C-alpha cells in the first residue's frame, strides 16, 4: 500500500503508533529487535529525531530499517538541527526510499540535551515545515523553484493538551491543521477529564487525534515528570496506584494503567487512536496493546 | 539601548596575556561603566590584578565612549604609555575593542564578552530587547519581539516547552509567546496570532551589514 498509515487513519479504526528510539552509536541491533517486535502489531512506528536534543542515529536512517523489515515508518523531523535546505533535501530522500508519513516538530531546545553548546537552527518551525511539505507536493521548493519529481506525504504534528496556558497552544494547533496536518499526536495525557475537555475543542477540526501514552514505571517517574516535563500532568490517584504496587511489579502496574487508558479511549471513542511511548521499554508495547484488548 | 557586556574570568584574561609583560588598559565610560565591567573601578581592579600577576601596567585610561571617533584623540593623549605596552587590554564591548584596535598599532586583548544590546530593567539587571534582525515583526506580536525573547526565535506561537507561562530552558525566563498572547488578547488582536508568518529572511541585512544612506549635501 502506497499510503498505509493514511489509509489506517481514514479507515475509522482505532489507530496505534509507537516509538522507535535510534541508538547512541552504531549498535542498531536493539532498534531492529524493537522494529521486528512491533511491525505487525501497530499501524506506524515513529522514529525520533535526536530526541530531547540528544545526538543519535538519524531518524531517517531508522525509517529505512523499518521499511526494509516490512513495517510502516513515521519520520519525525524537528527544525532544531537543519535549516530549510537540509530539511527539504531529507524530505526528498525519504520520499524516494518509500517513507510516506512525516511528523513535524519544532524540536526541543538545545540546552536540554547533550550538546549544550550547539547552534539551535529553528530556521523553520512546525507550522512552516508542514507548509513546506505541502508546497513540495505542489512541485515547488521553498525558494519557489520547480522540483523534478514531487513528494506525497501524510503529514502530522503534535500538541500539548495539558499546556498552561492552553489558549496559545490551541491557536498553534489550528495553524498546524490549516497548514495541512492530517493527524496530531499529543504529549502524554493521564487525566481523562482534562483530555476530554481538550477533545471537545479538537473535534471542531478536520484532523485525527492520537492520544500520547507514556508508560509509567514508578511513582517517582510520575512525580519527576510533573515537576520537570512541561505539559505533563499525572494525577495523584495514578501516582498512589504506582506507589502501592509491590516492588518488582511496578512495570506490570504501569502496563495495566496504560492498557486501561487505551481501552477507555478506544471504547468511549474519545479520540482516533493512541501513540504509545515506552521510553527505554519498547519491548512491553505489545503487552500494553494486549492489556487494552486491541 | 546599551551594549551589555560580561567580564571574562581573570584566568582567561591572564591566559590571553601570556607572553606579554607590559600592558596598557583601556576601559569605557559609557555602556561598560553602566554594566560595571569597564568603568573606573573595574579598570583599577584589573590593573591591580595584573600587577599581582607580575605584569607591568604602562598606563590606564577610561575612554568616554570607546566606540566613538573621539577615541582616537583620547588615545593620542596617552600615546607614550600605550607605546610602552606590548598589548592593549580593552575593557569595553566589541565595538570599543575594534575601534581601539584600529588606532593602537599593537595586539588588542578583549577583557569582556559582548552579550547583547539591551536595557537595564532595574539596577544590575539587563534584558535583551532587539537582535537587529533586519526584518521587524513587532506589528504582528503586540510589540514583544519573539525573535529576541523566545529561546528558539519562533514566529508562529509557543512550542511544547512552555511551562506555566515560563520557558523550559529556564524557569526564571518568561515564555515570549505567553506574553505575546496575553497582550494580543488585551488589545483585542488575537487575529494576528492566527496568521502564519512565513519563514524568516535571514538575509534581510546582507552580512556583514553595510548601509549607505543618501544624505543631502553629504
What's the total count of β strands of chain B?
Answer: 9
Largest interface: A-B, 36 and 31 residues
CATH topology of the largest domain in chain B: Rossmann fold
Shape estimate of chain B:
elongated
User: Structurally, how many domains make up the residues of chain A?
Assistant: 1
Largest sheet of chain A: 8 strands, parallel, barrel
Provide a count of the helices of chain B.
Answer: 9
Oligomeric category:
heterodimer
- Report the portion of residues of chain A in β strands: 15-25%
Look at the structure and give the CATH class of chain A: Alpha Beta
Amino-to-carboxy terminus distance of chain A: 22 Å
Structural class of chain B: alpha/beta
Proportion of beta-strand residues of chain B: 15-25%
SSE pattern of chain A: HEHEHEHEHEHEHEHHHEH
Summarize the structure.
The complex is a heterodimer of chains A (294) and B (218). By secondary structure, chain A is of the alpha/beta class.
Amino acid at each position: 500500500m502506497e499510503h498505509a498509515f493514511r489509509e489506517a487513519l481514514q479507515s475509522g479504526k482505532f489507530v496505534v503508533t509507537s516509538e522507535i528510539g535510534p541508538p547512541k552509536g552504531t549498535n542498531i541491533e536493539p532498534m531492529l529487535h524493537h522494529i521486528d517486535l512491533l511491525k505487525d502489531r501497530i499501524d506506524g512506528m515513529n522514529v525520533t529525531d535526536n530526541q530531547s536534543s540528544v545526538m543519535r542515529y538519524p531518524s531517517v536512517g531508522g525509517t529505512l530499517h523499518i521499511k526494509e523489515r516490512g513495517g510502516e515508518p513515521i519520520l519525525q523531523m524537528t527544525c532544531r538541527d537543519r535549516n530549510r535546505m537540509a530539511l527539504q533535501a531529507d524530505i526528498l530522500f525519504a520520499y524516494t526510499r518509500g517513507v510516506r508519513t512525516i511528523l513535524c516538530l519544532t524540536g526541543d531546545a538545545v540546552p536540554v540535551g547533550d550538546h549544550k553548546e550547539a547552534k539551535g537552527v529553528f530556521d523553520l518551525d512546525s507550522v512552516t515545515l508542514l507548509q513546506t511539505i505541502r508546497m513540495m507536493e505542489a512541485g515547488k521548493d521553498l525558494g519557489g523553484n520547480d522540483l523534478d519529481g514531487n513528494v506525497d506525504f501524510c503529514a502530522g504534528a503534535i500538541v500539548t493538551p495539558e499546556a498552561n496556558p492552553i489558549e496559545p497552544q490551541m491557536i498553534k494547533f489550528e495553524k498546524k491543521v490549516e497548514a495541512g496536518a492530517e493527524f496530531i499526536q499529543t504529549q502524554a495525557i493521564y487525566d481523562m477529564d482534562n483530555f476530554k475537555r481538550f477533545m471537545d475543542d479538537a473535534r471542531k477540526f478536520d484532523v485525527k487525534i492520537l492520544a500520547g501514552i507514556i508508560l509509567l514505571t514508578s511513582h517517582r517517574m510520575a512525580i519527576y515528570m510533573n515537576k520537570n516535563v512541561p505539559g505533563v500532568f499525572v494525577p495523584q490517584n495514578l501516582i498512589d496506584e504506582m506507589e502501592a504496587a509491590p516492588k518488582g511489579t511496578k512495570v506490570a502496574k504501569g502496563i495495566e494503567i496504560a492498557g486501561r487508558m487505551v481501552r477507555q479511549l478506544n471504547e468511549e471513542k474519545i479520540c482516533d487512536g493512541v501513540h504509545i511511548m515506552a521510553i527505554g521499554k519498547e519491548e512491553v508495547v505489545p503487552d500494553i496493546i494486549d492489556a487494552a484488548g486491541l | 539601548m546599551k551594549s551589555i557586556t560580561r567580564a571574562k574570568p581573570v584566568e582567561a584574561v591572564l591566559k590571553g596575556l601570556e607572553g606579554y609583560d607590559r600592558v596598557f588598559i583601556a576601559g569605557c565610560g559609557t555602556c561598560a561603566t553602566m554594566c560595571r565591567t569597564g568603568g573606573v573601578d573595574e579598570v583599577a581592579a584589573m590593573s591591580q590584578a595584573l600587577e599581582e600577576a607580575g605584569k607591568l601596567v604602562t598606563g590606564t585610561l577610561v575612554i568616554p565612549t570607546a566606540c566613538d571617533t573621539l577615541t582616537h584623540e583620547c588615545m593620542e593623549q596617552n600615546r607614550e604609555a600605550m607605546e610602552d605596552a606590548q598589548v592593549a587590554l580593552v575593557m569595553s564591548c566589541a565595538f570599543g575593542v575594534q575601534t581601539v584596535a584600529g588606532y593602537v598599532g599593537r595586539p588588542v586583548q578583549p577583557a569582556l564578552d559582548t552579550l547583547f544590546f539591551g536595557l537595564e530593567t532595574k539596577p544590575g539587571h539587563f534584558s535583551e530587547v532587539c537582535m537587529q534582525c533586519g526584518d521587524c515583526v513587532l506589528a504582528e506580536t503586540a510589540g514583544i519581539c519573539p525573535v529576541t525573547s523566545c529561546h528558539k526565535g519562533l514566529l508562529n506561537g509557543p512550542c511544547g516547552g512552555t511551562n506555566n507561562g515560563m520557558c523550559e530552558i529556564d524557569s526564571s525566563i518568561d515564555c515570549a509567546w505567553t506574553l505575546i498572547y496575553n497582550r494580543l488578547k488585551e488589545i483585542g488582536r488575537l487575529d494576528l496570532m492566527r496568521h502564519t508568518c512565513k519563514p524568516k529572511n535571514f538575509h534581510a541585512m546582507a552580512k556583514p551589514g553595510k548601509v549607505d544612506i543618501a544624505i543631502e549635501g553629504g
